[in-house]
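Exam revision sheet. Question 4 asks you to relate a sequence to its structure. Input first:
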Amino acid sequence: MRVPKTAIDTRMASALFAEAQAKGVTGFAGAVASRAMGGLWVGGNVWLTPEELVFRANAMNRRFHLDPKTLAWRIPLAEVENVSVCKAFVTRIIEISTGEETRSIRCFKASAFAAAIEATARKVRA
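Answer key, structure tokens:
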């Protein structure tokens, strides 16, 4: 996946992937950790562009996961129905919902980033 050239905001972030599998994390401990968190949090970068929100895992995470091609996603802002911020330990979690899915990311200054996502999505839908 290519890195967006036009970005309104960029953040180092972690995204939750329900189906991600880290190499070497197998057996009971890996299953318990994944189930408890709803998947694995994968570190990378998230870009807010005028048209979409894009996440891409960083090189280290791509190297240590079984299927690194699945560690990226794009959400067209025209499809965003709701953006919410949830309290969590250290960094807050931003949930971005469309009619088909909800993606979760966590980053520093999450409230400000969520507001930027929501404002940009509102402009696209107008």
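Marking note for examiners. Helices lie at 27-37, 59-63, 110-125.
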